[in-house]
Predict the 3D structure of the following.
Amino acid sequence: MNPRPLPELAMRPMLPTDVPLLAEIFRAAVEELTSDDYSEAQQEAWAAAADDEEAFGAKLAHKLTLVATYGGAAVGFAALAENRRIDMLYVHPAASGQGAGVMLCDALEKLAAARGAKEISVDASDAARGFFEKRGFSAQSRNTVSLGGEWLANTTMTKPLVGRGRPS
């Protein structure tokens, strides 16, 4: 008897039917992975950005959005804006640390480079800053953004893409 193969981590473009699950991944990641860096009120205001699923889905649909799957089930997503900025990168807490975030970030970097970007940027939450630093991003500026009456800090980070993608 052959053992069942382990599910594989894979990636695909976002489908309109993914939006409710991606909204849930977004909320779960904010609520469970950011408590060391943000207050409960800040987390609630941030997570509420996905409460209007139609608007949340429209935001993702207007960007190049990729979905990470594990065994066919969505476990994370990332969106590339203006072909040079990571607008969102969220992984469900149950799949955190399993490679989905790295796979998504790698894909967005390669896509940005292939489309002519010389660098890629992200406004990283305090909770995600270490992830991006390990991937070669460097801090450029500290920011505060207002969400639902709460102020949240983040850091604009950039990474050069020179020598990647198509030759100049």
Observations:
- The beta strands are 9-13, 64-70, 73-81, 85-91, 119-125, 138-147, 150-160.
- The chain has five helices and seven strands.
